[in-house]
Design goal:
There is one protein chain. With 554 residues, this protein is an alpha+beta fold. The chain contains 19 helices and 14 strands. The protein has four domains: 115 residues, no CATH class; 54 residues, no CATH class; 226 residues, Nucleotidyltransferase, domain 5 (2-Layer Sandwich), CATH 3.30.420; 31 residues, no CATH class. The strands form three sheets. It has a seven-stranded mixed sheet with strand order 8-9-12-11-10-13-14, with helices on both faces. A five-stranded antiparallel sheet has the order 1-7-6-3-2. A two-stranded antiparallel sheet has the order 4-5. The longest helix has 25 residues.
Length: 554
């Protein structure tokens, strides 16, 4: 009897004697049995609680479903070679699953390494659930795979397994709905405020979204907002306008997001009008932005009573970039920049308004960076981006909530004991009463501070020395001649000593001497000049533009 006949008999014996309590148990047993023989098994077709047809994972033939006209969209390989192997599992009336033979032959040799079979890299139901949970928390696929391998070092899955499973989960979540329909249903379910604009053929051109937690924070802290666009956040290449608020703890939070088709005045007017409605038509005291003329005009129209402050950092850097070419010598330009910074031209305007210390758009840049850490890629759709935005918003809300709760705890007296200043609890306790200056430690009180020159240490020392000379002169007359001669000799010796001092002697330091005197810069304390300082210009990029109040360019 040859080996192939023996193998078929063993398979028939296994199939004849196999009975399973459940569908999952049947699949696991069959796959384990044939994996040990070097073959992969996949599902050909099935009907819930009735039957399942299993085939070799190399059965069937490749069908090209991705075509444009007569040309292939991309080259796709296939391991399908019409292997005829098939077995059938059926569920009996008693609920027991049994296997029946259909075709036990293969048209290829068994694999020496089964890890090359996609069916071998399937995840267990427990692992699938773990992937779903970690995907919901925004964990990237590579970290998901690392986490699964920590629990199971022999896990056969690869990165593509995780990506395919995530795509399958996304498809299951959509069901028969379109992405847009599913997105709007999710907005309604979670209590988002959202609005859209679309073109004549139904494509979304503008999308405003505000998470309910963002709305709560924006209404509570509506005095100042920072607005700026960021890029490379979605597969549609639409700019994303971030609206950033400032909490009572001087931390930033996301107030709203707007996907824009274009960065023009009409788009900004629409976006700010929707945002104004979320604030119940309140107008902020200050809105910080860079010199985006379209946004500035929109702010003036939608929030006419709001002060629009330009980012001082952008202005200073644009002065540096645009004015240097007008100076013949570097020394003259350096003097100009020194005068510019000392005069504080911009501060003379901005310090008139209540901006809570916000004079630059750095908060927006930090918010952009944090958001992109959640996004991970710039190829996500509206639904993917919205899910990551929700994670970022919930994180910030919880941070503010915890800080707020911590301030409500009983006073420990630690702040007053260590800082010498009344804490918020003490001030609240004395509400309506006069605060005594005794609550302020003298360290912080300028009303008791004296730094006059006549009270200095130098004058104190001179006065003390004069008193010693006066006492010496009065006693000198009563001393014997020998003592007088001794005192005069000591004073003469002190006056004869030279007052000239010299620098310390230069000694060779310990260790091996330098090999060559040609090396320079080893002892310099100056940092290497940046590209900006060498060139004297700032390169405008697509994602971050610098503007100046004095520039005529838009």
């Amino acid at each position: 009897m040859d080996s192939s006949s023996s193998t078929v008999q063993n398979e028939e014996l296994y199939l004849a004697n196999s009975k399973f309590e459940s569908y999952d148990e049947l699949l696991k047993s069959v796959r384990d049995f044939y994996y040990a023989k070097g073959y992969g098994v996949s599902i050909r077709d099935s009907s819930k609680d009735k039957y399942v047809t299993l085939q070799c994972d190399r059965g069937g033939s490749y069908r090209d479903r991705i075509c444009i006209g007569d040309k292939r969209k991309k080259n796709t390989g296939s391991c399908l070679i019409n292997c005829p192997f098939q077995i059938v599992g059926k569920k009996g009336n008693d609920g027991i699953w049994v296997l029946k033979t259909k075709n036990l032959t293969h048209n290829h040799e068994p694999s020496t390494d089964i890890s090359g079979h996609p069916s071998f890299r399937r995840l267990s139901p427990t692992d699938v659930q773990s992937v779903k949970n970690m995907t919901l928390f925004g964990i990237p696929p590579r970290q998901i795979l690392s986490s699964l391998r920590q629990a199971n070092p022999n896990l056969p899955a690869v990165s593509r397994t995780i990506y395919n499973l995530k795509a399958k989960i996304r498809k299951e979540n959509l069901g028969n709905r379109s992405m847009v329909s599913a997105l709007f249903e999710e907005f309604e379910k979670e209590g988002f405020i959202y609005d859209i604009l679309h073109n004549s053929i139904g494509h979304i051109t503008h999308l405003f979204i505000a998470h309910p937690l963002s709305i709560k924070l924006a209404k509570s802290f509506s005095n100042i907002f920072i607005m700026d666009c960021t890029y490379k956040t979605n597969k549609y290449n639409m700019p994303l306008l971030d609206i950033i608020g400032v909490s009572c703890f001087n931390t930033s939070f996301y107030s709203g997001f707007v996907f824009l088709e274009r960065e023009d005045e009409d788009s900004y007017i629409w976006a700010l009008s929707v945002f104004k409605k979320t604030l119940e038509n309140r107008e902020p005291s200050v809105i910080m932005s860079d010199r985006e003329l379209a946004l500035m005009n929109a702010i003036n129209m939608v929030f006419p009573n709001t002060i629009n402050i330009l980012c001082i950092w952008h202005i200073e850097k644009n002065v540096l970039a645009n004015c240097k070419k007008h100076f013949a010598h570097t020394e003259e330009f350096n003097l100009f920049m020194s005068s510019w910074n000392n005069e504080k031209f911009v501060s003379a305007w901005t310090e008139k308004y209540l901006h809570f210390g916000n004079r630059s758009s750095s908060r927006a840049e930090g918010a952009h960076a944090k958001l992109k850490q959640y996004l991970q890629v710039s190829t996500g759709g509206f639904q993917d981006v919205t899910e990551k935005i929700c994670l970022a918003i919930k994180h910030e809300f919880n941070e503010i909530k915890v800080k707020l709760a911590s301030t409500m705890t009983p006073c420990t007296g630690h702040f007053m004991a260590t800082m010498g200043l009344p804490c918020a609890h003490k001030i609240k306790h004395l509400e309506g009463m006069t605060l005594s200056l005794d609550l302020i430690h003298p360290q912080w009180r300028i009303d008791t501070l004296r730094l006059n020159s006549e009270d200095g240490l130098h004058n104190d020392g001179a006065k003390e020395f004069g008193e010693l000379l006066s006492e010496l002169s009065s006693r000198y007359q009563m001393w014997p001649q020998s003592k007088k001669e001794f005192v005069k000799s000591m004073i003469t010796k002190l006056l004869a000593e030279s007052d000239t001092l010299f620098e310390p002697m230069i000694c060779r330091p310990k260790g091996r001497p330098p090999k060559s005197k040609k090396k320079r810069g080893i002892n310099s304390t100056a940092r290497h000049p940046s590209r900006f300082r060498v060139c004297g210009i700032i390169t405008n990029t697509k994602s971050f533009k610098f503007y100046s109040c004095l520039s005529n360019e838009q």
